[in-house]
Amino acid sequence: MNQVFMTGIGMLSPLGKDRQASFAAALSAHSAIRRAPEALSAGLPNVLMAPAAVEPESLLDSQDAGLDRATQFSLVAAQEAMADAGIDETPSDADRFGVFVGIGFGGAHTLDAMFARYYTALFGGEHSRKRATVVHPLSVPRMMANASMAAVSMRYGLRGMGNTYSVACASSAIAAGEALRAIRHGYLDAALVIGTEAMLTPGSMVAWNALRVMARPNADDPAASCRPFDRDRSGFVLGEGAAALVLESRSRAERRGAVAHAELAGYGCTSDAHHLTAPSVDGQVAAMRQALDEARLAPDQIQYLNAHGTATDAGDVIETQSIVGVFGAASRQLAVSSTKAVHGHLIGAGGTLELALAVMAMESGSIPPTAHLEHPDPRCTLDYVPLQARHGCRIDAVMSNSFAFGGSNASLIARRMTG
Amino acid sequence: MLEQLIKKYLMTGAKVDPVKFDQPDLLVSDLGLDSLGLVEMLFEVEEHFGFQIADPMQFQNMRFQDMVAAIEAEVRAHNNGELPEIQMPDSSASPSQ
Q1: Distance between CA atoms of A312 and A219, rounded to whole angstroms?
Q2: What stretches pass through the bilayer (chain A) (predicted)?
Q3: Residue A419's pLDDT is what?
């Protein structure tokens, strides 16, 4: 059984163009949430979004211009993570190096643009109708869910086992967990794990709006509209972006003298088999316990938990009950925060983004707060690090939770590097 | 102009060396396009004229000039024998979305 180290982190998030900028904004509770422009709000009033801090195209070569936006985010995050890990060309053990991607809605931009163009032409005048069927020949390979895995594996020549996990909000947490298992059990020696999501399109906005889970704009300050664990919560805000992690077996990392951010030590994954969208305490508890068991840690050895914390009534209350169920008395010493208040819900990208932020909190000893938590919900009884970051903390292990529509629960644990 | 449209795409979008077009007997197979690349090239034409070219593979073993002539014939067949005016794009490398 191999130990697995995290030797590279990269991200392009609503909070910043890279990991340092993103983490700094999370610490200062600088929210990236804003009102959506009219072209995106699709006729809906009050649509909010958390767009990426910079356009991914501006950080890529012109040859990547036609790729789906989610694939562009993947390439940007991968670039930073690989550079951070000190891997600048195709590794000599590329057959043992895989790419694992988590994404919720593959190809949303490509699909939305193609359908918009097609139906507009089809239902237009006679001249336009005749042209309707002329569609870009790469539409399918651009929109396929595994487009990121294809682009990233080709970019770095990584030929090991790799897969794409589409498990809604738990997609990239599960991608990271499955990569951890692949290395732990010797199928691979290294993996580039990516969570990506780009679905800020009119077509997806109307669909999400219909589900009644989206936050209403805060009258005083739209940036403060997502309020996890607050009695004035009204739901989440869709974000976009990507985060990438380089995972390596301990022996591979040590052999090349890599400096690791953390050990990825535990992963738990369960299915509720209960409800299409409602969360369940039993499934969440089981996922967190599996992760603790694998990491061989007792609950009181975790100091910080980045919560799924979507700012929905059911989500916040159930997760709180689950954490209390797992941590018991230790939950009173546990710092819990939801950074979704500032970066929004990145769906498929959320798992890797939030795990990365938790690892950076462990490395720096600074815990990002739950922003806008001014009026705690009395049913939410934990220490949510309200409003202000906490500095100078000794953190030996962190947990990150990702709970998905469809009832999939994933929990990951990272440990501080010793010595 | 149809030839210019195709050449411009090949040079900017597909990064074909412009020097190649100095050869009068240039073959389509010398352009370095795989079958997907050939289809992408044809899309440049299709987008301009609003129809899908019937058989991309027919061009694979042609000379470049014969391919241009064959495409022109197909465009004319869709436009009552006329070749509609071509508006050259600023950059054919831009995404089509």
Answers
A1: 19
A2: none
A3: 57
Domain boundaries in chain A?
4-107+144-415
Asked if A134 lies within 8 A of B36 by C-beta distance, the reply is no
B22 phi and psi angles, rounded to 5 deg: -75, -20
What number does CATH give the domain A4-107+144-415?
A: 3.40.47.10
The answer on pLDDT for A55 being more than 70 is yes
Which pTM value belongs to this model?
A: 0.94
Q: Are A305 and A336 in contact (CB under 8 A)?
A: yes
Query: Which positions of A are annotated as active-site residues?
Result: 169, 308, 345
Please tell me whether residue A132 adopts helix, strand or coil conformation.
Answer: coil
State phi, psi for A268 to the nearest 5 degrees: -130, 145
Look at residue A60 and give its three-state secondary structure: coil
Q: How far apart are CA A309 and CA A320, in angstroms?
A: 9
B11 touches chain A (CB under 8 A): no
Sequential DSSP letters for A332-378: GT-EEE-THHHH-B-GGGHHHHHHHHHHHHHHHT-BPPBTT--SB-T
Per-residue pLDDT of A177-193, as tens digits, reads 999 999 999 999 999 99
Q: Is A125 on the interface with B (CB under 8 A)?
A: no
Q: What burial letters (b/e) apply to A323-360, b meaning 16+ CB within 10 Å? A: bbebbeebbeebbbbbbbbbbbbbbbbbbbbbbbbbbb
Contacts of A77 (CB under 8 A, 6+ apart): A10, A11, A12, A194, A196, A241, A242, A243, A244
Partner B, chain A 44-73, Cβ-Cβ below 8 Å: 62, 65-66
Q: How far is CA A151 from CA A75, A99, A133, A141, A301, in A?
A: 8, 10, 27, 10, 39
B14 phi and psi angles, rounded to 5 deg:
-105, 0
Distances from the Cα of A413 to the Cα of A114, A117, A267, B25, angstroms = 40, 44, 6, 64
A211-228 residues labelled b (16+ CB within 10 A) or e (exposed): eebbbebbeeebbbbbbb
- Between CA A9 and CA A416 the distance in angstroms is 15
Q: Enter the CATH code of domain B2-77.
A: 1.10.1200
Chain B residue with CA closest to A141: the answer is B36
Residue ranges of the domains in chain B? 2-77
Task: For residue A83, give the nearest of A180, A22, A13, A9 by alpha carbon.
Answer: A9
What is the structure's pLDDT at A318?
A: 97
